[in-house]
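User: Here's a chain of 192 residues. Predict its fold as tokens.
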Amino acid sequence: MKIIYFATIFAAAALSLGLAVSCGKSDSNTANPNTAVTAPASPNSVENQTAPPASRSAVKPDKALPKVFYSEGGLAIRGTDPVAYFTQGKPVKGNPEFAYKFGNATWQFASEQNRDLFVKSPDKYAPQYGGFCAWAVSQGYTASTDPDAWKIVDGKLYLNYNSAVQWGWQKDISGNVSKGDNNWPALAKEKS
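Assistant: Prediction complete.
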């Protein structure tokens, strides 16, 4: 019985350490995610995009928040179409022909229709926390993201550093979103 107890504690500590190391603090908007780290499969299919209703924090969005987004070379989500996550249920590479400047970044879309949807309602389609890693923001700092480590929860797009970090973030989505919502206003002002 003691062996099982210690094995459980060791596994939990290893997971926590792995999350802390793989989603390290990043002061740069050009950090590349460590995509070599993998975790047990957590499919992102459309049917898995709605989590149980999360208990939201009482923090109301601050309309005065700067529109600052994680970008690499000025390109949001590495050129991935943010609308496609919602309409196609997967990341789709955008086309420079259908680009739109919003906040501090250029967004690319797979079609003119997707670009027009975004232009009409950018807050609906843009990733939460400026596209920075949702786990990192929940912990009080920012980190880069991988367009393939994504999840839609309560109609909002969240990105993570990589699939291993996403797997850990998903273990307490409502708690991590609540912490992220509380931390984001200060982090957004710091990034602007």
